[in-house]
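Exercise 7. Given the encoded structure of a 156-residue chain, write a plausible sequence.
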């Protein structure tokens, strides 16, 4: 299957769920060894889940299919430029190649705006109008981290 057909399949899935009022105009596909593992779409509205973006839904599905959190060797196709959350999920999943159809300015024209999140991150996460982060009981986390390290489990 060629790249344009894969992107078209992701767009078709987005169009279907968009018409059903399940989510926005975003679709994603994950490919491994030239074969489509899964196609997913944005389902934020239907799932009442702000993290149910197309890329995250596709990563979750591919991880279930492959039985691993490590999607090394996979490629991701997305009808939109990944937002900061999706980009982080892509990086955590070890996906090294992403094909996109839409650019941020295209989505911004119809009201989607990820740029304020990028600015928040670039500004050191200090804009309290967006979110306030306050340390509380750091020893709790340190104890958990030390316990985990002592178990000699994998770091991912």
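Solution.
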């Amino acid at each position: 299957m060629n790249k344009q057909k894969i992107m078209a399949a992701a767009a078709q899935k987005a169009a279907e769920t968009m018409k059903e009022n399940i989510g926005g105009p975003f679709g994603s596909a994950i490919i491994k060894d030239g074969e489509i593992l899964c196609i997913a779409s944005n389902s934020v509205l239907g799932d009442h889940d702000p993290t149910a973006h197309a890329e995250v839904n596709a990563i979750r599905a591919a991880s279930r299919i492959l039985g691993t959190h490590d999607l090394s060797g996979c490629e991701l196709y997305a009808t939109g430029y990944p937002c900061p959350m999706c980009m982080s999920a892509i990086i955590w999943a070890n996906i090294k190649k992403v094909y996109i159809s839409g650019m941020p300015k295209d989505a911004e024209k119809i009201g989607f705006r990820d740029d304020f999140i990028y600015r928040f991150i670039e500004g050191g996460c200090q804009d309290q109008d967006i979110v306030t982060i306050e340390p509380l009981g750091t020893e709790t986390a340190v104890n958990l981290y030390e316990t985990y390290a002592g178990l000699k489990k994998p770091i991912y």
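Remark. The chain has a mean pLDDT of 94. Students should compare their own answers with the one above.
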